[in-house]
Sequence to fold (328 residues):
Amino acid sequence: MPFALNVIRLGCTLAMFAVLFAQAQTPQASDWPQRPIRILVVAAAGGLPDITARTVAGPLGKLLGQPVVVENRAGGAGNIASEAVVKAPADGYTLLATGANQAANQILIPNPGFDYERDLTPVAMIGEANMVLIATPSLAANNIQELIALAQRKPGEIAMAVSVYGSPNHVGAELLSNMGKIDFNFIIYKGIGATMPDLMAGNVHLGISSLPAAMGPVKAGRLKALAVTRLKRTSLLADVPTVDEQGLKGFDINSWVVLMAAGATPPAIIERLNMETRKVLQMPEVKTVLENQGMEAPLMSLKEVGEYIRADVRKLTPVLKNPKLKQG
Fold:
């Protein structure tokens, strides 16, 4: 009997040490972070995810007491950066700044070598942006209904510029094609910024752009705005109606940027990051920078961010299950 008791005591002692050891190896929110944090951005420098991540990184680093460094890992429709975060230690020191492609890719690229839901977890929504359908001035259409009529007369002849596969402008173009029954000639560019010279020159007819990139050429008369892509108009282009207003009911596409971490990151660290990021988004100087980019900074809980992404996946699935533009 004493021997059995000793075995039980030894087992309990070993179990206690195992728990203590595991706790010692797991970063806790109270003593985290102890070194710089990296944010890997899915897009090249100058894109909306990059600008948003860099806007947030400096103030976030001050709140956390450690530098937050932004690195661009463009390519693979955003999955190069995503995979790097998935493969990094799940300790909160490597984060992902990704956009609406995070929802689109789950439909377009279902087997990227990792599981979108299991291997990545939301940290914070850091920006939402309206977009605008822009056209070269010579296009014989000034609104959505005129565009649909023109497309019916000239099937396959209207050139639609798109950038990264799965990006918001690609998704918006697919939805417009689907809802308006328009047969676009898709022209692929390396980034939406690269489309602007060709749009202004009339080499392509249409594009869907973030507001900041489009406002200058539109106000200068070098491009014309046919519609904004959310359900509500934007004060930045108050005279431009929505796609929904112009007859394609329910058309609602936007660009958003979210921070994510490896799926196994300790919940306490994720909660800390969410809390501190929301503090950053309420800073007047941060709000001003984002507003100048045509963005809003919604203050979402972790649950709300996850639900937001899942809702986008549900919304996009019928459109992207059979996209007109096939991945090359």
The chain has two domains: 35-128+255-320, 131-237. The radius of gyration is 23 Å.
